Amino acid sequence: MHFFPRSGWLFGATCAALLGASGVAQAAADGVVFVHGTGDQSVSSATTGYWTQSSIDTMRSGRPYLIVGYPGASCAGFSQCSWGSIVDQIVPWMNANNITSFTVITHSNGSSPLRYMLGHTGAVSAKGHAVSTVTSRISQVIFSAPDLTGTPLADQVTTSGSFLNIANSVVEFFGGGSYNNPAVVQQRTDNMRVYNSNGTFAGAQGATTVGGKPISVVRGNRVYANIFSSDAYCGGYMYTIGLKAAALLGWGSFNASTDGFIGSDSSGYFGNIIIDDARLNHHQSRRSCHNSGTLIGKKVASVSIPPPSQQTYTPETNVQAAALACNNYAAAYATDFMTGNTVWKYGCSSTQLNNGYVEPDCLISYGYSSSYRIPSTASWNPFLNPAYYPTWSEVCPDSWQGDGICDACLISKYGFDATTGSTGANDCVQSPPGGSNWCADLAWDTYYGFHNYAVVQALH
Ligand SMILES: [Ca+2]
Is residue 256 part of a domain? Predict the structure, then answer.
């Protein structure tokens, strides 16, 4: 009937790049340095893609800060091109801002170059700076989701052919597509065993200080199960879904003690564990989710925080990401952008929600319809039925991820509609008031008289 190619029609969204690394010049100051994990990051990509500005601002407690960008995938933590690059960025920042002491916050394998530095203060960077120039001013180190004894996932990705099913969103934690890189090889459990025993990386099992510096550890210990929750929503569904898959792949169970990427045995090898949270996955610990950023900020400011056993959190709430972006719970007439025809959007009333049938908009709005639950690629899923795509040549292909249209079919399939990587375009984030979202959903075409996958505009 009709063929409407989807690619290349909506590329309007651009993100203004924020340049980080800006400390506020002032008299003798306490600062904060952020060191990212595996990945070759620039200062800019580390700021906007890895940490995000809002998370940085939550953790730094108003203090001048430095976002480090270094080759954290191409270089293992013990290589000069890793720790030396970090040193060569900290020194001029210290001098320009009169930083007399600072807290270092790392995420994931960012712990490794720091551990090398703490154990090799006499080493010299490519630009001729002794590590001690930097470490002498470190007041404390906060390792967030540190990889202290390696991860079985690194064993798997560096073993040929064993990592085919890992989610793209999780591959990012190994530095992107070419994940068989020096930093990942360094994180193999067998290699880390060597580095921990031969002095490559400082920090003895159970120690609370390394090189005289207090070490705090922030970690999650579960990948939370309910993807349609406020907890899972923080940072994006894509990571939660991917880390659930990684938990299963790396540890054989969703219930294993892991944040989806680093096992609790690795993150807890040493250090004073200040956050030990069952609702904080590996991605969320760099994004200040679940109050972790606020607690880290207090630690930065030397304000006491309750021990993990006494930390309390607001109850999770169910969120309706696609429903909020696309008004999918509401029934209404709309114009199909692709055909120009008027379509009837079904919506999801409280009666429809539990009427015993599969109601497409209930799946999208609430994550379930009667006893049916998504994400699911099962045959009952109406979003995967070719009969409901009469004007299309494809049935919900993955190429629709992150193309600017919030696809109900992808929500039903995976729980999210987003690209992976540093930009992380998410099609189903609600536009602000006065804005609009492009949305695709199953609807009744009143002109042709059949069900069709219609693209409509949702106004907010
Ligand atoms: Ca899409």
Answer: yes
